[in-house]
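Sequence in, structure out. First:
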Amino acid sequence: MKTVKKAIIPAAGLGTRFLPATKAMPKEMLPIVDKPTIQYIVEEAIASGIEDIIIVTGKGKRAIEDHFDHNFELEENLIQKEKFDLLEKVNHSSQVEIHYIRQKEPKGLGHAVWCARKFIGNEPFAILLGDDIVQSETPCLRQLIQQYEETQCSVVGVQQVPDEETHRYGIVEPSVQDGRRHEVKTFVEKPAQGTAPSNLAIMGRYIFTPEIFHFLDKQEVGAGGEIQLTDAIQKLNELQKVFAYDFEGKRYDVGEKLGFVKTTVDMALQNEEIKAELYEYLVKKVEEGRVVKHP
């Protein structure tokens, strides 16, 4: 049985929702408290048993490579000052091999995944999207890998969303349910408002058999004029089963401004250094809000 040891992290998007901050800084490097968003994703992959990661980048993304490279001057400085806790944080991502490939044209998520096909070869693999951070007792990706090991089939991570938000996501139409795992009739990319077959939305974590590349190779354009990963998943599901797994954990959407701010607040309230003072500040703002008109 082949095990899942490789992962793709697509990071080639322009990050237009966060302009002007992302004019010179990749959106994946925007910090949540003291850690860039992409590091949360890499750490989840490491905790799930991934040994090799390929990050699909684009123009202006060199900062991502620099972040995961060794900085010998910084590391030596931390050693001399005996700041070993910071040294461990800086070097945490060295537990995995990280590779890079550039998506030369912005043709969509399906195309970004296709760019990593030679790195994957004939092996099952994971995909982790950087807009979704998941906190859970068992890492989200590890939950999906366990489902793959049981079924030897592709698995996509899903969670329920409100009906009025289904048009923002890839949605699955489930059939037979076994606990948290669903067989799937169809996968639909961003269905029109009111037409979604369920409220189970695909949430940025996937395990695929290499056969997915048979369909991505065709470079067929879908919704939004882009090569959609969801379209290839639907075709793969017609060839071999693709399961949906309703994973356990709290998912944070860091791909839009309000979600990013909420994530930052929640993560800061878990940070031992600042959580007490931040809590007092938030309480004070709530008290002020009772007498000050809401903006």
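Second:
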Amino acid sequence: MREEKVLAVREFTRWSESYDRSILQWLLFGPSHRAMIRRIRQTMGDRPFRLLDIGCGTGVFAALVRRELPRAEVWGVDLVGGMLTKGQARWREHRSSVLPVQGDSENLPFDSCVFDVVTCANSFHHYPRQDRAVREMGRVLKPGGRLLLVDGYRDSLWGWFIYDVCVATVEGSVHHASARRFMDLVGGAGLGLAAQTVHHNLAPFLLNEGVAGAGMPEPHFRRSRTTTAHDSSARD
């Protein structure tokens, strides 16, 4: 596992040079960030809250949170120091309300029960111990806090081709979990699964929503035939 993390750090350190200009910012990151912002606004309303963004990279999402949800206090954590360094301009701009921290998703450098919202977008497939990472996400959430976990949706034929074939070929040892696997991970961390939303964009993604201290309510799904921002039933 240590070797996988070392390789990931090397890969993302190289990628940090062009990360903000990557086509993925338009194709995947931007749409998934906007989807999370909508859900956070719906669940948190106008009240102040603390948010932790795991795998924060150069701070693109953290800055978006501050622009769209100005009552949020934001912490960002990333394993890769090079990513945090490349985001220095954003950290300076938002230094009064955003704090970047270098740390590991499997051993978060925060006390338990301190965040109202935990987000993780498009980096989860790089985590070698995904069950441990989700348990850590649950640990730092306050009772009733919300986890928003986004990764590529690989349960359709198109998603399988993009993530299990193309991405895996380019990025090596990665694992995009199925919707069913995300159910198991969220439940195994002691979180209630509030919803799973499939976004059928050109690069489809799955938004998983967990609630801390909420027991294990049955997930609810809504089918839609539109091509953007819709809920769908989970697939194995």
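Remark: The beta strands are 49-54, 72-78, 98-102, 115-121, 141-152, 191-199, 205-212.
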